[in-house]
Amino acid sequence: MRFFFLLCSSVVPAHAQSFPRNEITFSGGQSWEVFKTFTESDTAVSLGGTYGYRLLKNVAVDAGVFVALNPTPPACASFGCFNGDNRFTWVPFGAKFILPLKQDRYELSAGGGGLWEHYTVNNPNSAFGASTYSGWGGYFKISAGVALDRGRHFWISGTPRWVLANTANHRDRWFMITGDVSFRF
Fold first, then answer.
1. What is the dotted CATH code of the domain comprising 20-184?
2. How many angstroms separate the CA atoms of 167 and 136, rounded?
3. What pLDDT, in 10s, does the model give residues 133-185?
4. Where are the alpha helices (DSSP H) in the chain?
5. For a Cys staple, 99 with which of 9, 106, 108, 137, CB 3.0–4.6 Å?
6. How far is CA 101 from CA 146, 151, 173, in A?
């Protein structure tokens, strides 16, 4: 009987939290390749989605998928131009620390973690050296957000992210700024 009472008394407070534990976020913005030496930085439209789970009021874990569409411009040579119809797919997973402000209506957060990157060329051409590759890396992000409703279920925020990935022959460094819309429950 004591074990049952102890089990019930420890489980009930875990579900009586005053903050929403789950968060689904949709993001859209722009990405820039950084530290590129010989040519101008490549840019791309970025879209993504993230799921987060709050372990504590100030700590959450999250994972998501981001896509940078056509990050490299068409390559041209003496025999014509080639548009690879390429894209980066990034799968970040990690943790973030949250600082609630002003009656929990505003918040700042910072986090980071691991990342899997996949570069896809839908129209490969060996003459231009375009090929598909994958690799591992990491990411860092900071964010500032505001709740849109009194129940703090709908949020908008801005998030800069740094994506760092290393593959066998590539060192990808991207900076991404997104506007985010979140639903918490």
1. 2.40.160.20
2. 7
3. 999 999 999 999 999 999 999 999 999 999 999 988 889 999 999 999 999 99
4. 2-15
5. 108
6. 9, 15, 32
Each domain of the chain, given as residue ranges in start order, spans 20-184
Q: What is the pLDDT of residues 51-96, one digit of tens each?
A: 999 999 999 999 999 999 988 766 676 766 666 678 999 999 999 9
User: Using CA atoms, how far apart are residues 66 and 154, in angstroms rounded to an integer?
Assistant: 21
158 has which bridge partners? 144, 179
151 to 19, 105, 137, 147: CA distances (angstroms) = 10, 9, 37, 8
CA pair distance 19, 57, nearest whole angstrom: 7
Q: Point out which residues pair with 62 in neighbouring strands.
A: 52, 94
26 in Cβ contact with 49 (< 8 Å): yes
Structure tokens at 21: 């534990």
